[in-house]
Design a protein that fits this description.
Blueprint lengths: L5 E5 L23 E5 L2 H9 L5 E2 L18 H6 L4 E4 L2 H6 L4 H13 L3 E6 L3 H5 L3 H9 L10 E4 L15 H14 L2 H4 L3 E5 L6 H7 L6 E4 L6 H15 L2
Parallel strand pairs: 1-2, 1-8, 3-4, 4-5, 5-6, 6-7, 7-8
Bound molecules: phosphoenolpyruvate.
């Protein structure tokens, strides 16, 4: 595989699970995949202190390092604390914080400007899939992103497959079709090297094994199972096994 897999734990608004910082934590695993933890802002320093590669769930899109932005946190602050990845446009932020496509792209550009790595989340809702609009939705979400930027990751997370309200997980075929489409949108220089993650009810099961063997699926963004370290470890085992073949 040309691209080293990436498995990211999106801990959302949850404390670190017990054992997350211990020597044998899967967040500290160095196998065939890059592993990153994306905790709340309160736990970022703790993770970095244990040499866990750490991301933030959000960063301010405004081009300022500090100032009168109540509740916000600047990209400069994240960078100074050695955060290296920032999730941009998770569907929960798009929905609950009204982040528009433009806001998300501005945010991703701000991440790049501060020499960090954006993970841009895209994905359609169930209605949009039912009516065959999923590719239009995703290409609109990515419109305006400078695909020729140094390095970035895209996470395809169909909203209907995410979290407790998930109707079902995407099938490997559905995910692969969208991933191949997303890859076709990238510029030529980045097409072969950019990682595209799948997120949505990923569990340590056969489906995850089938997913990671798809040519355009380069890893996972994991929500629920990142709070259960045995399950997160199970997902890593599946990725390690598939990439060790
Ligand atoms: C997510 O919300 O990023 C996610 C992938 O959640 P889950 O794995 O719980 O579906």
């Amino acid at each position: 595989m040309e691209r080293r897999p990436l498995v990211a734990a999106n801990l959302k608004m949850n404390d670190l699970p017990e054992g997350a910082l211990e020597e044998d934590s899967p967040f500290r695993e160095r196998g065939n995949a890059d592993v990153i933890a994306i905790p709340t802002f309160l736990d970022i320093d703790k993770c970095i202190g244990k040499y866990i590669i750490t991301g933030a769930q959000y960063g301010g899109r405004f081009d300022v390092a500090e100032g009168a932005y109540t509740g916000d946190i600047s990209m400069q602050m994240l960078y100074d604390r050695r955060v290296r990845y920032v999730l941009c446009g998770h569907s929960e932020r798009r929905e609950l914080h009204n982040e528009s496509n433009d806001n998300v792209i501005e945010q991703a550009v701000a991440v790049l400007k501060h020499n960090m790595h954006p993970i841009i989340c895209v994905g359609e809702n169930s209605e949009q899939r039912k009516t065959g609009k999923e590719k239009d939705v995703v290409s609109e979400q990515l419109a305006g992103f400078p695909f020729n930027s140094v390095s970035y990751t895209v996470a395809y997370e169909p909203i209907w497959a995410i979290g407790e309200k998930a109707l079902r997980a995407a099938t490997p075929e559905e995910a692969e079709e969208m991933h191949a489409y997303i890859r076709s949108l990238l510029d030529e220089e980045h097409r072969a090297v950019t990682r595209i993650l799948y997120g949505g009810s990923v569990k340590p099961n056969d489906e995850a094994g089938k997913m990671i063997r798809q040519p355009n699926i380069d890893g996972f963004l994991v929500g629920g199972c990142s709070l259960q370290l045995d399950k997160f470890k199970g997902i890593l085992d599946i990725v390690n096994e598939a990439t060790g073949e």
